[in-house]
Amino acid sequence: MPDCSSLLISGAVSKPDTEISGQGVILAFLLSAYITLTAVLLAYIGGQIDEDLLGPVDIVILRVKPFHPRKSRLHATLRAATLALSDQQIVTGIAIMGAGFNGLIQQSISVYHFQTVLYLAWMSSSVHLSALTILATYLHNRKALKAWRLAGMATLLVLLVIGLIPTASNDWGIEFWNSMPADHTGWGIPAHCFWFRTWGDGVNPDAVLGFLILIVSYIWKVGALFNWSRRVFYRYVRYPLDWLLEKMVSSLAKQYAKRRKWNWLWLFRTALSIYLPLTALLEVGASFSASVWLSALGLAFGTMEIVIPRAQNMQTTGEEESAWTFGQLVPLILLVQPLGAVLEHVWIPHEDRQGPETSMQRRTNRDENYEPEREHARPSKRDEINLLQFFRSYDPPSCSQRDSQTSNLHQLLFASRLFAAIVWFIQFSILGAATVIFTLNGYTIGNGSAGNWAYMLLALGVFILLVFGGTFAMIPFSRLGAKEGLESHVSHELVHYSASGNSNA
Fold it and tell me: Do 353 and 479 share a structural domain?
């Protein structure tokens, strides 16, 4: 049995394990993960996403077209390929985590290879979450298909949460420190040495962040598969928050209408600079674009945690793990399986397959009482919008009585260029923050704690300053916060959107 305390001083030589980190194994996981994400992106951009899954941000601001029945054959082909890829990944993810835990029990797996196992399984979960993003409507009325996938996801989640435990140590995954011989590395230390041990150096806060990201992403996506979970979210989270924000703004608008003093006007504008960004954040979170971001960022993070440690260990493991053996070819050959599913849907006559449900059928089959149907506007350039006039005669409905008034309010918001600009700013902020944090994380893998939590807090602070401060500065120049009430007339082409079908809420 190795002496962990001495290995924490001298390190160990990383030994190759082609069954875990061979280039064929890694490439097979990466290819299937990125093919699935690419399919989701193409479906989103190409109008292959069911209308039920799209939010008003997607349709009105990002101008994404919902799925049209005329494209049902392409839709079915894409769905079949995604199902095949995701099913393959959920099984291989559980299998590779099982191999990793077996190595822990036998005290034979190194930090490097357990890290690889853990994040290969992480990518498998990202693939499956990506698949759920576009399969939610399809799985809704297919209970058996949904049940076994949920069982597989729950199993993989438990394995991932347990597997993250040793990574909590600040000493986990350090490539080199001064007391090591030249050919030794921290990656070569047996992974079991960190099982519930931090060796006095404390817990890596980034590991805590990893737990939160993993659990929140699962709750978010799995919760979207059930009507009752969406109903609970809207009734006890979204609606109370909407009511509180609307009450704040409408109260100040009424005070200004009564007193006509400049201080009440600026209090109203200050409240509006809080209301607009928070509402935009809620709408972005309920959109399909948020699901795409969740999958893409999780996949990028997992890729970095595999590729960078592999590069750092290439000197001692590269020659064997880069060889093309039978064990490296098999995982790649198995990627042909989804191609069979695609060809099946291309070649089998369309009338022999059950066509997709229409949006009306899906809405009939769902519980539509938990969130009222909304209408959203595609704004005209001539729209004149003024929230001061709207809110001074507006009484926010209670959580159980959200009615057409909220539809009118949403039409005003989505017809606003300022509100659209806030939504776009949120999208670019996600990209910018992720780029900076992942870049810094890449430099620190193998060298110590990345401190991503600190960078995230900094990014959050900068975002709050820019979005709320920018909104406050722009409101006086926007029709939303104009001093005098303009006649609110919105010329628009209505886009019907049933929030009861919004699976990403």
Answer: no
CA angle 457, 462, 465 (to 5 degrees): 125
Which pLDDT does position 343 carry in this prediction? 66
Instruction: Identify which of 149-153, 274-278, 309-313 has the greatest average pLDDT.
Output: 274-278
Instruction: Note the pLDDT of residue 420.
Output: 92
Q: What's the number of CA atoms in the CB half-sphere (13 Å) around residue 156? A: 31
Helix (H, G, I), strand (E, B) or coil at 16: coil
Contact 445, 308 (CB under 8 A): yes
Q: Is 478 exposed, middle or buried (0-12, 13-18, 19+ CB in 10 A)?
A: buried
**Please, which pLDDT band fits residue 2 given cuts at 50, 70 and 90?**
low
Neighbours of 155 (CB within 10 A): 15
Indicate whether 307 and 393 sit together in one domain. no
Q: How far apart are the C-alpha atoms of 393 and 448, rounded to whole Å? A: 57
Residue pair 11/185 in contact by the 8 Å Cβ criterion: yes
Q: Does residue 279 sit in the same domain as residue 393?
A: yes
Residue 182 lies in a domain: yes
> Is 124 in contact with 95 (CB distance < 8 Å)?
no
**Distance separating alpha carbons of residues 425 and 247, to the nearest angstrom:** 26
Query: What was the pLDDT predicted at 273?
Result: 92
Q: Is residue 368 part of a domain?
A: no
What local confidence, expressed as pLDDT, does residue 257 receive? 85
Domain check: are 79 and 193 in the same one? yes
Range of the domain at 54: 4-228+287-360
Domains of the chain: total: 2
Question: Are 390 and 458 in the same domain?
Answer: yes
Instruction: Please report whether residue 161 resides in a domain.
Output: yes
Final residue before a domain boundary, out of 360, 389, 423: 360
Burial 445-465 (b: 16+ CB within 10 A, else e): bbeebbbbbebeeebeeebee
> Residue 263: how many CB atoms within 10 A of its CB?
10
Please determine, for residue 499, whether its predicted confidence score (pLDDT) is greater than 70.
Answer: no
Higher pLDDT, 117 or 223: 117
Q: Which of 394-408, 434-448, 476-490 is the most confident on average? A: 434-448
The average pLDDT across 448-466 equals 80
Q: Which amino acid is at 431?
A: L
pLDDT band at 125 (very low <50, low <70, confident <90, very high): confident
Q: 490, 419 in Cβ contact below 8 A?
A: no
For 188, counting Cβ atoms within 10 Å of its Cβ (0-12 exposed, 13-18 middle, 19+ buried), the class is: buried
